[in-house]
Specification:
With 534 residues, the protein is an alpha/beta fold. The chain contains 25 helices and 22 strands. Helix content is 39%, strand content 14%.
């Protein structure tokens, strides 16, 4: 397996202009996301080893793309195991960081903490350098108490909005609100854009400004700022944007197109997009659909990833793992794709386009669309299925009823296992399977592998077969149906080793967590206050 030193990797990672990386290769942190959140190599994409087969079809669609992998170091074998998996899946240009993150830090290199750091750093730069207007929670509350005509719009996903938002907010995900901008300006004396924290609020208010809309404000620190001011969020709200007026849609579309063009984004004909997608197996390319989930499921271009622009601006490093590859945005021929392209160009992505005329133009050109929201089949799934015995619910019940039943091993992530697992199951998370299985199962005894997501059990069962486990079965029943056939319990097994496989989301935790997170975000912007960057 090829390796690279920390010094050589640092040289490869340094962008020529000191901004967003434009590399033609992918850098993956294959540790669990909670580990990566505590410290990772700047600009790395989080890709836990257990998710390789599931996310690679979208992240690196071209198997010849160069991929660099790293783990903790200090005896951690996950990067080399991940590289072996990729090689088996047909990837040909694979390199592991020699010594992992430990070697990187020992060489004196910086690490980033948190997640989606490049995007959040960019948002703070926009705030510092773009004169983005904002209101504090107290200022907004005072204006509302005075009876001012203020429209509040939550630009997070619909699910986040329903989980808890300002009592006065309307759900306006991503850049959906931009289609209504002219209508909103006419209906309110002031408009407040907010998310849970800072980035999407900042990008939203900055978007209004570059669209030429006055009196749009960001809510400082979003719903966290509202809660930290000792005000409650409203849960289960259902207020949504309706349809924009034709005048508002037309105005936003024209303005967004000019913004994107002036920033260097291209407009691509359907035939050119078709040719690009036909080549994506040889050279990576990304197609992001910026529309609503409902519209996406009704009909989308094959290989498109549902990623509305506001989410794309906050999570670009999660999806464009090869930032030098072409990025194409699509909508219904309106403003959403162009605004996304505008911001990606400002971030520093070099090859950004918009599909001219959107999905309607694609259809009119005679190209097919797909419906639903099925993700690509995990790579190597069919091969893995052949290397173990599938058990349905009836077979599993019979096996568990005998006097000497097989060892039941759950390989799912901690959150799923804690929520529900088969009674008596032991836990050996797939990312650490080779290291932990010996403590919970004997290679000479029968084993049945379970996971909330049966495909994870399939891959884990194949690994155990490779390790010499003589009798390996896998449960094909998904976790959501376990309670119908089995006795299920919650909580992690008493002997479970700690595993940092979930992100620590501050607004789901304590007041102290929210304050620490917001302080961290604000510090990202400090370097941008000095024009020298020091």
């Amino acid at each position: 397996m090829n390796t690279i030193s920390a010094d050589d990797l640092r040289q490869r990672l340094s962008p020529p202009d000191g901004t967003w990386p434009r590399r033609a290769w992918a850098l993956f942190d294959v540790r669990e996301v909670g580990e990566a959140q505590r410290g990772h190599i700047p600009s790395a994409t989080f890709l836990p080893r257990r998710m390789l087969e599931f996310r690679l079809p979208e992240l690196v669609p071209a198997p010849a793309t160069a991929v660099v992998l790293y783990d903790r170091g200090d005896g951690d074998a996950r990067a080399h195991r991940a590289a072996a998996t990729l090689a088996r899946l047909g990837y040909t240009d694979l390199t592991c960081l020699d010594g992992g993150l430990a070697a990187w830090t020992a060489a004196g290199n910086d690490v980033d903490t948190g997640w989606n750091v490049p995007c959040k750093d960019f948002g703070e730069r926009v705030l510092v350098t773009g004169d983005v207007p904002y209101l504090t929670a107290d200022e907004l509350a005072a204006r509302l108490a005075e009876g001012q005509n203020i429209g509040a719009y939550d630009v997070r996903t619909g699910r986040e909005y329903r989980d808890g938002s300002l009592p006065v907010s309307i759900s306006a995900p991503s850049f959906e609100w931009a289609l209504h901008a002219k209508d909103m300006a006419a209906a309110h004396d002031a408009i407040v854009i907010h998310c849970a924290g800072r980035t999407r609020s900042i990008i939203g208010a900055a978007t209004a400004r570059v669209l030429g809309m006055a009196n749009f404000w960001a809510l400082e620190n979003g719903t966290m700022g509202w809660r930290l001011s000792d005000r409650d969020l409203a849960k289960g709200q259902a207020r949504e944007l309706g349809e924009p007026s034709p005048e508002s849609r037309k105005d936003a579309t024209e303005r967004a197109r000019k913004l994107a063009t002036d920033q260097g984004a291209q407009f691509m004909a359907p035939a050119d997009l078709k040719a690009l997608l036909d080549r994506r197996g040889d050279a990576p390319a990304y197609l992001f659909d910026t529309r609503t989930t409902r519209d996406f499921e009704a009909g989308h271009i094959p290989h498109a990833i549902l990623l509305p622009g506001g989410q794309a601006c906050q999570r670009a490093d999660d999806f464009a793992a090869v930032p030098g590859a072409p990025v194409v945005f699509v909508d219904d021929g309106d403003a959403r794709a162009a605004l996304s392209a505008y911001w990606f160009r400002r971030m520093g992505f070099p090859r950004v386009s918009v599909l001219e005329g959107g999905v309607a133009a694609w259809r009119a050109a005679g190209h097919q669309v797909e419906t639903g929201r099925d993700r690509p089949m995990p790579l190597g799934l069919s091969e893995a299925e052949r290397r173990s015995v599938p058990w349905d619910a009836a077979m599993m019940r019979r096996a568990l009823a005998v006097s000497d039943p097989p060892a039941v091993i759950d390989v799912g992530p901690s959150k799923r296992v804690a929520a529900a697992h088969l009674k008596g199951a032991r836990w050996a998370p797939r990312g650490f399977l080779e290291d932990r299985i010996g403590a919970v199962a004997d290679p000479s005894a029968p084993v049945v592998v379970t996971a909330w997501q049966p495909e994870q059990a399939t891959f884990a069962a194949a690994t155990l077969a490779d390790m010499g486990y003589r009798s390996v079965a896998r449960l094909t029943v998904p976790g959501r149906a376990w309670a119908d056939s089995f006795e299920v319990e919650g909580g992690l097994p008493a002997d479970a080793e700690p595993t940092l496989d979930t992100l620590a989301i501050p607004y789901r935790e304590s007041r102290e967590s929210m304050l620490a997170y917001l302080e961290w975000e604000e510090k990202l912007g400090e370097r941008h206050r000095d024009p020298s960057g020091s």
